[in-house]
Specification:
The chain has one domain. Helices cover about 0% and strands about 50% of the residues. The chain is globular and about 35 Å long. Strands 1-3-5-9-7 form a five-stranded parallel beta sheet, with no helix packed on it. By secondary structure, it is mostly beta strands. The chain contains no helices and ten strands. This is Cell wall-active antibiotics response LiaF-like C-terminal domain-containing protein.
């Protein structure tokens, strides 16, 4: 579908559950993903996909209890935003100049952990 200005419309994936988290694989994601749960985190593996340089992938996590575990390539820049009681564990990109993954984590308990492969 095209927007009125001729650009491609971005697709948004929505995952909802009351109890239990979500496992998200890179090849099943679009540019934007929203995952909502009362109790449960999100396990996101982006190591199997090629994200073009300059592209931005956005993942929004809403939950009372549950964090985000993210696996990315060494060159991916990860930006974490939102409010939660829990920290962010990320050593930063190992290689410069890669694509950006933005995590918006909103919740009461749960941090964000980034693992680079």
């Amino acid at each position: 579908m095209k927007k009125t200005d001729g650009t491609e419309q971005r697709k948004t994936d929505v995952k909802v559950s009351l109890i239990g988290g979500h496992r998200l694989e890179g090849e099943t994601l679009h540019e934007r993903t929203l995952t909502v749960s009362f109790v449960g985190g999100a396990d996101v593996d982006l190591t199997g996909i090629e994200i073009p340089d300059g592209a931005e992938l956005r993942i929004t996590k809403l939950s009372l209890i549950g964090g985000v575990s993210l696996k990315v390539r060494p060159d991916v820049v990860v930006e974490v935003h939102g409010i939660r009681l829990g920290g962010v564990k990320d050593d930063g990109p190992i290689e410069p100049g890669g694509p950006t993954v933005r995590i918006d984590a909103w919740g009461l308990l749960g941090g964000v952990t980034v693992t680079r492969w």
